[in-house]
Amino acid sequence: MAVAGRWQATSREELERETERLRQENERLRRELERAEREREQIERERDRLREERDRLEKELEAARRAAKRQAAPFSKGAPSPCPRRPGRKPGRAYGPRAWRPVPPHVDEVVEVLPPAECATCGGVIGTERVNVQYQADLPPVRPHVTAFHVHVGRCRRCGRRVQGRDARQTSTATGAAASQVGPRALAWAAWLHTGLGVPFAKVATILRTGFGLTITAGGLVHALHRVGGRTAPTYDALVAVVRRSPVVAPDETGWKVGGRLWWLWVFVTRDVTVYAIQPGRGYAQAAAILGPRYGGIVVRDGWAPYRKLPQATHQTCLAHLLRRCHGLLDVAQRGAARFPHAVRRLLLAALAIRERRDAGELVGHGLAVAIGRLEACTDRLLAGRVTHPPNRRLLQHLRTERPALFTCLRHADVEATNWQAEQAIRPAVVTRKVCGGNRTPRGADTQQMVASVLRTCWQQQCDPLELLIALQRSRRPVVADLPLPDPAPP
What we know:
Structural class: alpha/beta
Largest sheet: 5 strands, mixed
Helix content: 40-55%
Strand content: 5-15%
Strand order of the largest sheet: 5-4-3-6-7
Number of strands: 7
């Protein structure tokens, strides 16, 4: 009995020790579990932080890339080549076409350049063997041509109405304090220098003073240019009407400052005319103000969403913008993230190849339809897939939205695959913006858009912009300029 009692006591003590050990082990495991849980939560917070940091850096990288394209030297092609080619013409047959300045069509003065009577080396008599001709075209000294118009004022003897004469060379009938005026040719030059070439008003005044002897202040040029803009208003309205009835138009927009505030410069280019519009917004209302809400032609534009709100228009998205976007993704893509932009790039290049073969006459009729059908089938299969990389997802969503506008250029021969016409038309305005900084008032913006539209349209149609502006200023009232504009009336 005593042995049994001692055994039971020993077993109880061992059980208590084992229980205490298990309790301590359980407490240790609980503390480790809590520590692991805290570490997991910390890792998850760090993971979320790193994801946010990654997204932020991606956005900053994209913004930096866009800003690099809008720097002070926007047309730079990057760092110079470490091994540039030798400048100048190549020798031999690779020289290229040989050209020289042509002989002037007229000669105003002939100067006989005789050799010296005696040789400077030996003192012998020099005789003439032949006569070579050299032409020198130069600018003559310029001074302002001042015309005094003696305006005769009379009165009708029947009704008593006051009547005065007007010469065809006059731009207004003002006298008195406004009797001394600047002529239409000088103002046409000023409008072309400032609006067409982006020269600031102060420098335009300097050019007129030093080059032509015509003194005028920068403020006087501003007021004079407003008068020129008023004379171009009917022509501007006619250009807008032509754009609204054009079968194809290429729009684009860029930032513009009016009174130090952000406005937007819009450009709409057709085959015959160009219209600029400086407006306070960048939405559908501004686009419809020029194109009209019922525009039914083809809009060749970039991926800006407000253009899609034109319900009756057919669209062609700019393939060059999409290719640049693919190249930007490929520059930073890692591992499998490059597959999707590579596939998109191949489809876009295939579309351009089909267009080139169509223009060359290699694809016509049924063959062209089959090639377009296969391309669209490949595009639909690609857009039906899924991607995980966030930039690729954004590109995929954009392509799904733009799917109806991807290949319009393949079905219409007169539709470009890119909006290069609008890009080129907006470039001179960007140069003017960088030099002049925009406009100070909405009235200045109106004058800017009207005069710029007339000048750019003259450049398109190879007309003399100076003579056109002179004719508009000399007209008795604002009229539409004599330009070969298509009939804007509906059929």
